[in-house]
Design brief:
Elements lengths: L3 H9 L3 E5 L11 H4 L27 E11 L4 E12 L5 E7 L10 H4 L18 E9 L2 E4 L1 E5 L2 E10 L4 E12 L3 E2 L3 E6 L2 E6 L5 E2 L2 E2 L3 E2 L15 E10 L3 E4 L2 E2 L2 H4 L2 H11 L5 E4 L1 H6 L8 E11 L4 E4 L3 E8 L5 E8 L12 H15 L7 E7 L3 E4 L2 E5 L4 H13 L19 H14 L15 H4 L19 H20 L2 H15 L6 H12 L4 H9 L6 E9 L7 E7 L7 E7 L4 E6 L9 E6 L5 E6 L14 E3 L9 H11 L3 H5 L3 E10 L2 E10 L3 E8 L5 E9 L2 E6 L2 E3 L3 H10 L14 E4 L4 E3 L2 E9 L5 E6 L6 E6 L7 E8 L5 E10 L2 E12 L10
Parallel strand pairs: 2-16, 23-24, 24-26
Antiparallel strand pairs: 1-27, 2-3, 3-9, 4-8, 4-13, 5-6, 5-9, 7-8, 10-11, 11-12, 12-21, 14-15, 16-20, 17-21, 18-20, 19-22, 22-23, 25-26, 27-28, 28-31, 29-30, 29-32, 32-33, 34-35, 34-47, 35-36, 36-37, 37-38, 38-39, 40-42, 41-42, 42-43, 43-44, 44-45, 45-46, 46-47
Helix pairs in contact: 7-8, 8-9, 9-11, 12-13
Length: 866
Amino acid sequence: MRNYQKALLLLLSVGTYAAKAQDAPPASKYDQHKVFSPLFYPEKGNLFRSASGTPGPRYWQNRADYKIDVALDTLKHRLTGSVTITYTNNSPDNLDFLWLQLDQNIIRRDSRGQATSVVEGGRFANVGFTNGFELKGVTVINKGKAEKANYLVNDTRMQIRLKDTLRTGGAKLQLKIDYAYDVAEYGTDRTGRLKTPQGWIYDIAQWYPRMEVYDDVSGWNTIPYMGASEFYLEYGNFDYTITAPASLVVVGSGELLNPTEVLTPTALKRLAAARASDKTVMIKDSAEVLAGNAYLKKPTLTWHFACKNSRDVAWAASKAFVWDAARINLSNGKKALAQSVYPITSGGVRAWGRSTEYVKASIELYSGKWFEYTYPVATNVGGPVSGMEYPGIVFCSHQSVGGDLWNVTNHEFGHNWFPMIVGSNERKYAWMDEGFNTFINKVDTKVFNKGEYYTKDDVQGGAAYMFSPNADAIMNTPDVIQNDYLGNAAYEKPAQGLMILREQILGEERFDYAFKKYIKRWAFKHPTPWDFFHSMDNAAGEDLSWFWNQWFLQTWKLDQGVKEIGYPDNDPSKGSLITIENLEEMAMPVTALIVEENGKSSTIKLPAEIWQRGGTWTFAYKSTSRISYVTLDPEGVLPDINPDNNSLSGQPVQQGTTAKSVIDAYLNAVGTEARLKDVSDLTVKSDGTFQGVGVKLEMKYKTPDKFYENMIAPSYNNFVITGLVINGDSVRMKQYNADAKVSADTKKSIINRYKLFPELDYGKTGYKLELAPDMQVVNGKLAYLVTVTTPNGIRVKQWYDPKTGYKLKRVTDSPGATPTEYGDYQTINTGIKIPYSEKIFVAGGLVEFKVTEATVNKGLTNEDFK
């Protein structure tokens, strides 16, 4: 066996000629001792939770079974009923008191959730208020004896102080609670009601008092419900009835037990056909909704449901529902039912007419890939809630269409695996359900209908947001993560971490085996983060403690760069030496694309362990000609905060080329300087997708100093993602439907950024242009880099194609700035060219916009910029 280490040492000892990165390298922050510390795991395994990541031989969890009976008053929008909870104490402890969750109390004006909502509001803030749960009676039934409970309500929690201790070893008692509450129109976007022309739609959740979890980690888990954090619940069986006006269709978690008592013969016949059909079958169509008579002619009906081995149940009701369904084919040969209910206005093949297709595909794909779906029915409800998951039923926005509807449906049903099957503590660790679910969503979307809605993530491009200055570590409770970062810390960053593990570190086969093993081990149980880490390590056969620590517990950044390209005796035929460096605190594997001048290219993969020796690594490459360039992470799959140093070219800029000649070539390429100066205004409209949601962007320019931008999500009531108006020295900005503060420095940068054809000014006094001496690399193309310093000191880097002259990319040279990439230049009226493809980063997400309309000299007035 050849000794490659010896060969490398010999090569290193030979004199070399080297191409080096031009800028002085920053001091590295990397410390291999912190990354690869052997002291990551805080505890050893025990009899309850094994060090191998499995439930221990004495693992236990308590149980809660529910019998619920309620009535819905559609005139008063009020729910009245009772719940009987049978609680089983399987713990090794005797219990003197019990804790329950009263989630409706968050909608009270005096709730802790309301007190901690920011002034600007937000998704989880209350719009209106109710009295929360109105408790009519609380009774403890212990050993057949019923007594009035001694209880205390504190915000969204209730403590019941027991007269007789609930003994260990499987002892049981019952709690009977009579209650009522008013159904809020907006309930922290998890429950609520929506008025339609055909009647109200009710999305009903958090609708009964629920047991808190008592476990071996914290005892009672009593963190209050404040909006951002979700739920931690015990498993059990549910038997529940809903009495409502007979004109309403009611759908709920689990199985409808009395269909013949609540459905018309026509609906029963159609439902039977749907259970045997892979194509969507209409159960109640729009004509029947409009006619308003397709129901049993009684004042009220009682719908009876049962859901087994579940942590929760939810339901929806409306006389406005169109209803369709189809068969689900599970990989074990069993069948289930996919169904959708939604208002007439949401129908159509571009919208909810495909919902049941999406439900069926989601369940079948997840079941075949990870773990079998465990409920008899999967129901998608089009209503007021933008996206929320419950066992066997999900609430999605009635306005969602196309890819947005697929994404929200696929995401919410993915939650039936996390946390419905794998019952983690959402209240503490949102990433264990949202992040894991977002990960399986990405895997699912890639294969659904041959990738109909799949777009490749630009992880590298999103690094500036992922590691922004206000970034919170993933391992935080949702309520302490900043509002504008929750989507990253709970969803995207953990999902990307799992994707990196799967595709860059372990490989699909090892990762998928370990991940499925974790799901199987902890199905219907309560894992902690450490259980997950241990389970993955053991099943994959890899000590991943270095990865778990840096990705989930820290806010470290990643910055890999190419430092130097050298040749022994300045002779490329003898091979080359490539030196790379790690400049930030995080370590990752390395993928290097090496392109030679003779056209040969190779991809080299190096494991993360190269960084165990320090922040610099040199490796030998068998080149046969000079290196044209080396690019690290050519596919952009790692969140590198400084991709500019990911490439190093061995080619100098052609002699005679200047910064001015590059800018002149660009101006000529897009229409000549004279034509550009004739443009008095420009309006551009584009469509794109932002974090799976369809968005529209409109931009207006008016010389000399006016700009308007509005990016909205039509399926979310035209929710404003970003808005911007520049009028001279005035700058107004919106982000996420709320006004955003703009500092003086940011204002200067924004004004400079949104000038119409800023290259026209570059010859004026006060501008400074610098051309990098070596060619740069942009998306696998060699490019000129021109750095522009404006009269007010703003530095902007811009890359231009040496062949076409077009601008390929720009970024403000400041910390946290995100790049914009341009492509597909097309001619519009007056003969100028603009990019019809533009990739930008907005609030942490990549959006690729395609222009749908562009007009020049439309006659915009000052009124358009107020």
